[in-house]
Design brief:
The chain contains one helix and twelve strands. The chain is mainly beta. It has a seven-stranded antiparallel β-sheet, with no helix packed on it. Strands 5-4-6-7-10 form a five-stranded mixed β-sheet, with no helix packed on it. One of its GO terms (biological process) is DNA repair.
Length: 137
């Protein structure tokens, strides 16, 4: 499983375990990012994606492949917009073909669906430390 979908219940469970790099949290569901690259969009029978945004709400305005979230080796997350409509990050539009750096608590808005992007700071710190060891100074 590259992405685990979790229903949000009244109980607040910890967002992270030792395999979750980040969480895209909506009002209805949480998407746990467990690989360095995930695709966002609207699943159809011909189109499989990692994060099906239609689980959160009305997704008919969302492209089948709306975007990609990637974790770079330096520990930075980027979202790339591959759909027709803009993705808003903290109120700023990211247009088709563009990408934007995501930070902890970034608000990601796609066709009126709103999510909060939460980074597992402890795990990313370990990834950054590993990258620093490998990269010659």
């Amino acid at each position: 499983w590259q992405v685990l979908v979790d229903s949000i219940t009244g109980m607040s469970s910890p967002d992270f375990d030792n395999q979750t790099l980040a969480v895209l949290r909506g009002r209805m569901v949480r998407y746990l990012m467990r690989s360095r690259e995930i695709t966002l969009g609207r699943a159809t029978k011909d189109n499989q994606i990692d994060v099906d945004l239609s689980l959160e709400g009305p997704a008919w305005k969302i492209s089948r492949k709306q975007g990609v979230i990637k974790l770079k080796n330096n520990g930075d997350f980027f979202i790339a917009n591959e759909g027709r409509r803009p993705i808003y990050i903290d109120g700023r539009p990211v247009l088709c073909g563009s990408k934007w750096r995501l930070s902890n608590n970034s608000v990601v808005e796609i066709a009126s669906l709103r999510f909060v992007f939460l980074i597992n700071q402890d795990l990313i710190a370990l990834i950054r430390a590993e990258a620093a060891k490998i990269t010659p100074q």
